Amino acid sequence: MIAPLEELLQALTRLPGIGRRSAERIAFFLLNRPEEARKLAQAIGSLHDRVKRCPRCYSLSGGGLCPICRDPRRDRKIICVVAHPWEIMKLERTGEYRGLYHVLGGLISPAEGTGFQDLTIEALLRRVREEEIEEVILALEPKLEGELTAMHLLERLKPLGVKVSQIAQGVPVGRDLEVADEVTLGKAIRGRIELR
Amino acid sequence: MIAPLEELLQALTRLPGIGRRSAERIAFFLLNRPEEARKLAQAIGSLHDRVKRCPRCYSLSGGGLCPICRDPRRDRKIICVVAHPWEIMKLERTGEYRGLYHVLGGLISPAEGTGFQDLTIEALLRRVREEEIEEVILALEPKLEGELTAMHLLERLKPLGVKVSQIAQGVPVGRDLEVADEVTLGKAIRGRIELR
């Protein structure tokens, strides 16, 4: 294998979901299409210079406020708190949420040494105090780090008199009950809703 | 979606085997790892400048002869003819072949307007005349274009007194007989080998 191709294959196989075979397919595709390769290299190479953080919610932005903070149709009384910007994309795809977001930039993790001061929690508290926020929804992963972070946020938000809620935890839709672990099933039972 | 990210997603989804979800995973992975992103952009961006064609067999090379043409352990009396350089990689993985290669750069295709003069056929004939070649193996795809190209090559190579062979066509190993089409099955029957 020649060096420039091998270097590309190595870089490609570090990407999530790309094995050696996929990397080869992609490499030969790019080799055959100089123009596509140029565009892709440009898009990847300029990513970090061009992607900024929204100064209000810390989501991704092309500069200044992010598209959601700028959108006049969004409900400005609700903030949904997430750990990472890509979680916003998933929530947006549900079409169920029309409020604003706040990106913590991670979760409290004793194992990784991430404390609350490493997250954008002060900025969130400031938003709740300064903007007219009625509800803060916590959409954090239902694991230890998410629970720790949720507990800390609840403690800090409650004194501000804002409603704090958490997205429902339960059995994933369209999956067998068998795949749900006991903790999830337990939460699904406690969080059951009456059918009428 | 902000512009720099959207541009990256668009470029990524043009790659073979990459859908929108995979593109998002890759984009956020790169967003979180500036150093990996820099390396990947560099590897893709420099690919076309750094990958050359071997002046003898037209396979890929980092400059000068390709690694196979340079390898003294290869059998220099046999040339295996393929349409594209990536087919060499597949053949090499079989471990069954120790000769040289020749990359045509495509196949004769009336539909796409590719004629024999667009391929590296003259260079192949020159190699057969000038190098001490005893056998030329055709490893072309068993479809119309491959057959046309094989017929043309046979016609041009025979007068040079070289043995011309073609890789066996038959039932794919490890698959059900049912998946093989009639033409393949017919070839498999005609090309049957005696067991002893």
Key descriptive features of the protein:
homodimer; alpha/beta; Helicase, Ruva Protein, domain 3; Dna Topoisomerase Vi A Subunit, Chain: A, domain 2
Which structural class do the helices and strands of chain A define?
alpha/beta
Biggest contact: A-B, 49 and 49 residues
**Order of H and E elements of chain A:** HHHHEEHEHEHEHEH
CATH architect. name of the largest domain in chain A: 3-Layer(aba) Sandwich
Describe the protein:
Chain A is of the alpha/beta class. Chain A has two domains: 48 residues, Orthogonal Bundle (Helicase, Ruva Protein, domain 3); 93 residues, Dna Topoisomerase Vi A Subunit, Chain: A, domain 2. Helices cover 44% and strands 13% of the residues of chain A. Chain A is built from nine helices and six strands. In chain A, the strands form two sheets. A four-stranded parallel beta sheet of chain A has the order 4-3-5-6. In chain A, strands 1-2 form a two-stranded antiparallel ribbon. The longest helix of chain A has 14 residues. Chain A is globular.
